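Why does this matter for the project? Reviewers at the last site visit asked to see concrete outputs rather than summary tables. In response, this paragraph embeds two records directly. Each consists of the residue sequence and, immediately after it, the corresponding structure tokens. Nothing has been edited or filtered.
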Amino acid sequence: MASHLFVRHDAAGHARYQALKQLARSQRRILQGAPGLLKRRTRRGTEYWVREFNQAGGRKTDEHLGTVADVSDARRAQAQAEIDLARALTAGASALRLFGYQRVERRTATVLAALYNHDLFRAGLTLVGSHAYGALVNEYGISAPSYSTQDIDLARRQPLEIVLPADLDFRKVLGQSGVEFVPVPGMPSRQPSGSFKIAGADALSVDLLVPGKNLGKVVAVEELRTHAQQIPLLEFLVKDSVDAIAVGPNHVVPVRVPAPERFVLHKLLSSQGRKTDREKIRKDLEQAAVVAAVIEEDTPGILKDTFRKVPTPARAAIKRGARAAARILDNHPTSTVLDQIAGS
């Protein structure tokens, strides 16, 4: 076992993960911010109900439910049930952290929650990049090197099975997280943007990606009323995506992530497309090595079988990446499989 790369969580810890995943999928909607509590307020002689909660940035705010006269007992009970569910998920996420499971940053979780609330993952949006790696590591019940990223990478393989309302676009959906995003200026500046970030010096960003031969080319995504960047072989990466959860301090968000064997092969490809960023090259190779090792232990041969489905133009780069990742795996049995891919 590649003990220097990962260790498996015990059965009790992974049972907790699976139970939390099942509970998360029962959410009708994910509450913005911390769970909070119901409060009855009075303003100018009128009594009304609110959910008082802290936003991702820590600021206390209210979600207005309506006047006491208008909010039925059933509606108030529903609101309390949502708070109770959110508290249970928050407690479960805290327990998983103690078990060594990976968590996303608070604001990242709120952004993913806003996307979930608009059914965008169900409609075909896929979480990719390092956050997908963290979700896959948790899904397999292993403890591995943690990742640190301020990038939320989202892939859309084909037009989503949903169209946003006329008064809503992708940027406004992101803003419903309680975090304000602005478009990243295009290159040249008159070109529309496929990326969004928090205004100012904050590095948190969201990139929307679509398949295409021209790396970085910006194209329209009509159903989201926004634009996205083309990424080669993205359609291979997100085909047959799988269910997972993104675990944050106050949220557990059901998401879709790439199938692990496709994730490995695409990471090998990405590592060879980076020319000078040694840190990102190493991260790509290490993430590919970790996921390759665990899936080859569980389902031997799946990497080689999936490599046969890779489009021919991408195979040479993947072979180079496999050769480099095999060195990271050292004497783990998966290194033999990667060597075989490299020499095929």
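We now turn to the second protein, recorded in exactly the same manner.
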Amino acid sequence: MRHRRMPPAPLNLRGLVAPVFTPMRADGSLDLGRIEKQAEHLVEQEVVGVFVAGTTGEGPSLTLSERQQLAERWCAVADKRLPVIVHVGHTSVSDAKELAGLAQRAGAAAVAAVPPFYFEPRNVQDVVSCCVEIASAAPGVPFYYYHIPDNTGVRLNVMEFLPAAEARVPTLAGLKFSDDDLLLFGRCADAYGEKYDLFFGRDELLLPALALGAKAAIGTTYNFAAHLFRRMIKAFERGDMNRARRLQDQSRGLVFAMNDSGGLPAMKATMRLLGVDCGPCRLPLRDLSSDELEMLEMRLQEFLPLIRPEGSASR
């Protein structure tokens, strides 16, 4: 008698996941040799996993071959220390399926995908149909829907998506919620927080998300400021809300400083200033000028005491 294979369980991560930068050379080509140093740095930051080829990793700007190489390298380097979630979303569902299958074979812990974002799906069921196709190529690993409407333009109600998807996507494990709609996130956490992983994706709003039930988060600044955010989480967990609010205010200031200094190129440059060179960004993103880099370095001095490990940071 043939036994039906059980779908993979959600990763059930607790804490901070770093969406990693894609290391590049000056000419814009991949520089995979830098990933070992990135991984060591993230182990020191005590993140609980990595998210590869997402927004922070400039995934939509990479070729299919580059995304395959990146996933394979991260899976090899992480070596069980850091669970690897590979983002496989693409404007082409067929290419997303290929990436999902490649990620599973490389040893990824999970795959995630945005919906197609040029010809946008018209409704929840169309998004679910895309997820069915993508997830079917990686049946042995959990699948996460990546909700980031400001970038994709796909503004579906995830409270409608989750029940529609669970009926058709056996490997559905949750979602990455990169939106500032805290009311919607809270409803999701109330209804699905015990069943699915709901990764919160807005660093500057992490504290209110924790109050609404967030247990894990994926955010760019966790690449270099995880210690600051983890102190905030600890303060929240022990009920010290004055300290938690103060730390969230400091972390919000860091996020705003990064955004004011150029956004993603500024955060990638911050890694270089902190000794973990991930190289430049790729067009259409523009690297910082020498003057902008100098200004960023000056602004960063304010935050250096805050992002150091516990015991060396200012309280």
